[in-house]
C-alpha cells in the first residue's frame, strides 16, 4: 500500500486484501501495491523479506528508474521492468514537464483519459502481472510505479475485478493512496515548485487519486469490453483457465 516510509509496514500488510469477493474474501499476502522503492530503509527491506515477496514488477520508464533506482530485498528472485507510458507518464518525468512549463494544469478528466490510453495501449504489461499471479513460482508479488496510484491502481483494479470485488471497493482501494501518500507528496512537490512560481493547486488531480478518474476507466471497460473480465480475456488474451487460477489464488 502507498505509505510514508518506516511507519509500520506490518500494519500496512494487515490492511491488504480482505475485500468481499465472489465466494469469499480477497486473500492477504499474495499481491502488494506500492509506490517507488528507492527510499526503503533497511528495516523496510527486512519486513518485505519476511513477507517472502519473490517478484517485483516495475511499471516505471527508464528516466524514472534512473532518478530513483529501487532497493530490493533478498527474497526477490524475479525483478521485471514493464514500462508503461501515457499522456501524464512520459520518459520525461512529471516534475520535469511541470518545471519546463509543459504542464500547468491537470483536470480529473485528463487523468481518466490517460487511464484509458494505458488500458488500451499498454495492456500487455498488466497481462504479464496477471500471468505471474497464476504461477506459484512467482508469488507473492509486488508491483509498483513512482507514486503507486495510477499504473498500479489500474493493475489492482483489474485483479480485484477478476475476484468479483464491487466497484465501490475497487474505487475505495484506489483512493487509499490519498490517505497514505497525498499529504507527503503535496508538501514535497510544493517545496520544489514554489521557488519557480508554480502553483500546485491546478496540478492536484495528477498527484492525488481522484475517484472519478477510476470511474472513468471502469466505465470505459464496461462500455468497450463488457467489463474487467471481458477486457482481460478477450483483449489481453488471458485464457479462462488462467483467470480461474488467479481467482483460486486470490479468494479465500
Helix content: 40-55%
The largest β sheet comes out as: 4 strands, parallel
Unreliable spans are 1-16, 86-90
Number of strands: 6
Shape: globular
Order of helices and strands: HEEEHEHEHHHEHHHHHH
Oligomer: single chain
Fraction in beta strands: 5-15%
> How many helical elements?
12
CA-CA gap between termini: 20 Å
What's the pLDDT, averaged over the residues? 90
Helix/strand/pairing category? alpha/beta
- Enumerate the strands of the largest sheet in spatial order, edge to edge or round the barrel: 3-6-4-5
Rg for CA atoms = 17 Å
Structural write-up:
- This protein is of the alpha/beta class.
- Helix content is 52%, strand content 8%.
- The protein contains twelve helices and six strands.
- It has helices at residues 9-14, 42-51, 62-67, 94-99, 108-121, 123-134, 151-162, 167-193, 204-207, 211-225, 228-235, 240-250; strands at 20-21, 24-25, 31-34, 55-58, 78-81, 141-144.
- Strands 3-6-4-5 form a four-stranded parallel beta sheet, with helices on one face. The protein has a two-stranded antiparallel ribbon with strand order 1-2.
- Helix 6 (123-134) crosses helix 12.
- Residues 1-16 and 86-90 have low confidence and may be disordered.
Amino acid at each position: 500500500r502507498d505509505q510514508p516510509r518506516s511507519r509500520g509496514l506490518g500494519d500496512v500488510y494487515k490492511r491488504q486484501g480482505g475485500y468481499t469477493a465472489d465466494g469469499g474474501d480477497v486473500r492477504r499476502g499474495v499481491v502488494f501495491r506500492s509506490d517507488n522503492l528507492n527510499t526503503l530503509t533497511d528495516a523496510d527491506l527486512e519486513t518485505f523479506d519476511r513477507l517472502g515477496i519473490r517478484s517485483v514488477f516495475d511499471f516505471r520508464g527508464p528516466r524514472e528508474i534512473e532518478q530513483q533506482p529501487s532497493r530490493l530485498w533478498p527474497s526477490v528472485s524475479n525483478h521485471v521492468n514493464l514500462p508503461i507510458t501515457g499522456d501524464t507518464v512520459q520518459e520525461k518525468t512529471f516534475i520535469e514537464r511541470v518545471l519546463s512549463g509543459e504542464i500547468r494544469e491537470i483536470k480529473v478528466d485528463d487523468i481518466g483519459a490517460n487511464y484509458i490510453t494505458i488500458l488500451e495501449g499498454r495492456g500487455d504489461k498488466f497481462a504479464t502481472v496477471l500471468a505471474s499471479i497464476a504461477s506459484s513460482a512467482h508469488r507473492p508479488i509486488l508491483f509498483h510505479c513512482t507514486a503507486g496510484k495510477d499504473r498500479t491502481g489500474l493493475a489492482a483494479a483489474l485483479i480485484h475485478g477478476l475476484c468479483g470485488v464491487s466497484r465501490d471497493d475497487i474505487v475505495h482501494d484506489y483512493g487509499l493512496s490519498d490517505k497514505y501518500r497525498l499529504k507527503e507528496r503535496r508538501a514535497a512537490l510544493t517545496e520544489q515548485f514554489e521557488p519557480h512560481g508554480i502553483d500546485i493547486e491546478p496540478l492536484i488531480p495528477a498527484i492525488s487519486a481522484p475517484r472519478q478518474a477510476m470511474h472513468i476507466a471502469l466505465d470505459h471497460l464496461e462500455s468497450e469490453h463488457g467489463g474487467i473480465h471481458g477486457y482481460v480475456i478477450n483483449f489481453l488474451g488471458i485464457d479462462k483457465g488462467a483467470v480461474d487460477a488467479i481467482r483460486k489464488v486470490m479468494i479465500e
